[in-house]
Amino acid sequence: MNDPVSRETPLAPSEAVGVFSHALPLAERYADLLAREGVLRGLIGPREVPRLWERHLLNCALLGRAIGEGLDVCDIGSGAGLPGLVLALSRPDLQVTLVEPLLRRTTFLEEAVSELGLENVEVVRARAEELHGNRDFAVVTSRAVAPLERLLGWSMPLVRQGGELVAMKGSSVHEEIEASVGALKKYGAGAVSVEELGAGVVERPTIVIRVEATIPSRLGWDTTRDRGPKKKGATSRSRQRRDR
Ligand SMILES: C[S@@+](CC[C@H](N)C(=O)[O-])C[C@H]1O[C@@H](n2cnc3c(N)ncnc32)[C@H](O)[C@@H]1O
User: Fold this and answer.
1) Which residues contact 237 (CB under 8 A, 6 or more apart)?
2) Does 85 sit in the ligand 1 pocket, CB within 6 Å?
3) For residue 151, how far is its CA from the centre of ligand 1 (angstroms)?
4) What is the pTM of this model?
5) Residues 6+ apart with CB under 8 A from 27
């Protein structure tokens, strides 16, 4: 099947007005960047373009409904900025750090931040694990990065005590939770809940898992890999990579 796929940026659907509100013009500019540069640079598939709003932008913006006012958020494995960049443009009250190891993607993210004029975003080129012990956040988000068990290992050491992992997941989220009981315990999880956001607004509501961090994240460190608190090298390594 070689159906031609339109690369023209699709117009925002009517639901986008309510979801993005005042930020809709910024969301439209970001959609345009994804549809043009994102596809050209191989960051999203051309077949995603016609469903950019329904499958990507609206769902990611709805995640904002699960995040409190004025918090610092770390989005790990941001890729082309989903959900982190959407959160940043739709919620200027948040301070958002996008963590992504691949240079091609961080280059796009930095350009998008600059083009959209966002002042509440930091782009860090690193694997999430490289920040353990050096950075912490009130909220750590992600979408399509890893199965829950591995995601907990990458995310929970970045969550400040009293903060939360708030990750977008698919319909198998409950099975993933069952398979992650050991990891939840290991990484100091408190209450775990699943929420559906945007029912009645979008065709497929955003499924979110929320995991509270009840003990200091350092207790969750994997000591078998010789990670200690405040290893200076880790920060400078990720900074060096970011500057390259
Ligand atoms: C399937 S993509 C998802 C991208 C984006 N979140 C989305 O939903 O479109 C997974 C992303 O996670 C990144 N990634 C893989 N391992 C990672 C790690 N250990 N720490 C941070 N990001 C990672 C990859 O480079 C990739 O950009």
Assistant:
1) 126, 130
2) no
3) 11
4) 0.88
5) 12, 16, 20, 57, 61, 86, 89, 90
- Cis omega before residue 83 (within 30°)? yes
Enter the tokens of residue 225: 């890999």
**Nearest-10 Cα torsion for 52, 49, 38, 168:** 30
Measured distance CA(36)–CA(9) in Å, rounded: 8
Contact call for residues 82 and 56 (beta carbons, < 8 A): yes
What three-state secondary structure class fits 236? Answer: helix
Whether 199 lines ligand 1, by a CB cut-off of 6 Å, is: no
101 lines ligand 1 (CB under 6 A): yes
CA–centroid distance, 105 to ligand 1, in Å, is 10
Contact (Cβ atoms closer than 8 angstroms) between residue 208 and residue 63 = yes
The model's pLDDT over 17-75, given as tens digits with 9 standing for 90+, comes to: 999 999 999 999 999 999 999 999 999 999 999 999 999 999 999 999 999 999 999 99
Q: Whose CA is nearest to atom 10 of ligand 1?
A: 145
Bridge partners of 140, per DSSP, are: 74, 165
* Residue 66 and residue 197 in contact, taking contact as beta carbons nearer than 8 Å: yes
Given a cut of 70, is residue 125 above it in pLDDT? yes
d(CA 23, CA 21): 5
Q: Which two tokens stand for residue 17?
A: 């007005």
**Helix (H) or strand (E) segment spanning residue 74:** strand 72-76
